Amino acid sequence: EMFGQLTSGLESAWNKLKGEEVLTKENIVEPMRDIRRALLEADVSLPVVRRFVQTVSEQAVGVGVIRGVRPDQQLVKIVNDELVKLMGGEVSELVFAKSPPTVILLAGLQGVGKTTVCAKLAFYLKKQGKSCMLIAGDVYRPAAIDQLSILGEQISVPVYKEGADQKPAEIAKRGLAEAKKKNIDVVIMDTAGRLQIDKGMMDELKDVKRVLNPTEVLLVVDAMTGQEAAALVTTFNLEIGITGAILTKLDGDSRGGAALSVKEVSGKPIKLVGRGERMEDLEPFYPDRMAGRILGMGDVLSFVEKAQEVMRQEDAEDLQKKIMSAKFDFNDFLKQTRMVARMGSMSRVIGMIPGMAKVTPAQVRDAEKSLKIMEGMIEAMTPEEREKPELLAESPARRKRVAQESGKTEQQVSQLVAQLFQMRVRMKNLLGVMESGGSIPALN
Ligand code: GDP
Predict the structure, then answer these.
(1) How far is the CA of 271 from the centre of ligand 1 (A)?
(2) Per-residue pLDDT tens for 201-237?
(3) 76-103 as b/e: b if 16+ CB within 10 A
(4) ipTM exceeding 0.90?
(5) Candidates 201, 272, 277: which one to mutate for ligand 1, based on the most atoms within 8 Å of Cβ?
(6) What is the structure's pLDDT at 320?
(7) Ligand 1 cavity residues, CB under 6 Å
(8) Is 119:157 a contact under the CB 8 Å cutoff?
(9) What ranges does the record give for the region Disordered, renumbered to this chain (predicted)?
(10) pLDDT for 340-363, tens place per residue?
(11) First-to-last CA distance in the chain?
């Protein structure tokens, strides 16, 4: 099982939460320690692990209780979502040139599977209806050119090759010209690897890149090398500029460190993964599926998602009911206005009510300022006046008294009273339920 060790390492984290009612700062300490250990053992780089653990901890403590969902299930969901983000969130598609041919330059150290990937990628694109041509540019490893020719024959894709005594940049130039002549859609160039990074390899790649002006420069890295793979992606990107990585040998007993570190460490996405030696064993890298495989808890994830969805709906309906049923007196007004002032956190829920616009930070600040003024005036009202705003609407004398007691002008009090009635109407309008008699009375 892929990343089996990581999966079982994380499992012990969930197990520590069995029997708990909510996630707290205290009860996540042990599980977070397990998560940290599991990631480090999977060979995820330390800074990445630190950031990950911190983000998950913060979210775990802040997460609200969802009815019917256990804390361990909630933590699974949080970890899943953060794993997806860590791996780049969305799938990162191959980019194709506006006018063909699209040129894909492959780079990588020796033995990572670069030559195999060359053919696999052509096979993958051919299935999508694209015509491909391979350019054999690995003049460093004697057997590589023959190897590519054999693979090309297997998948019926033409291979452009020259003798091993030619310069890769020259081969690239002539190969590209050949592809253009043949109206090929995608040209994939294999290049020479080395056992480790050296200047000769980098210079060669720079030359080839200059000649080809490729749409994609993909570094092939071996999943077995863990966080070292992420470091390589970073280095190659700084040296020659790459567009992404291809992670090979995910079928082996790799621990997961490469898949989890590459994007976060290098800023470059993994675009494709190799999961075996056969030509069909190359596929796009889907962060969400990868996270799902690591956790091995698809059913828990979809259960928590459903529960969250239900809760969001109930939240919104709750608020809607409150607004609808409120007689909307000054007590409600105060509550409602205070809520608006807190809308930094409320805007999520408000945004879910159809017709209610999102609240901007400036609106929140304004609301806080005017809340202070309004509170003063509402405090000067009698309990009866607060419950029956009509009393204030009907009586200038009452408004005058409120103004005097709160140290505001009569005009300000009148405005507040008018505002309350406007708010009643506006809310009902927003919810699409116009009640009869919900009009704004003229103040006497
Ligand atoms: P290069 O030196 O980078 O060109 O590496 P090769 O393409 O020659 O591959 C080296 C070895 O790794 C070969 O035996 C391949 O069959 C093997 N290989 C490549 N990709 C994968 C993969 O995704 N999974 C497994 N299990 N083996 C792979």
Answers:
(1) 17
(2) 999 999 999 999 999 999 999 999 999 999 999 999 9
(3) bbbbbbbbbebbbeebbebebbeebbbb
(4) yes
(5) 277
(6) 64
(7) 108, 110-116, 193, 248-249, 251-252, 274-277, 281
(8) yes
(9) 382-409
(10) 555 444 444 444 444 445 556 666
(11) 79
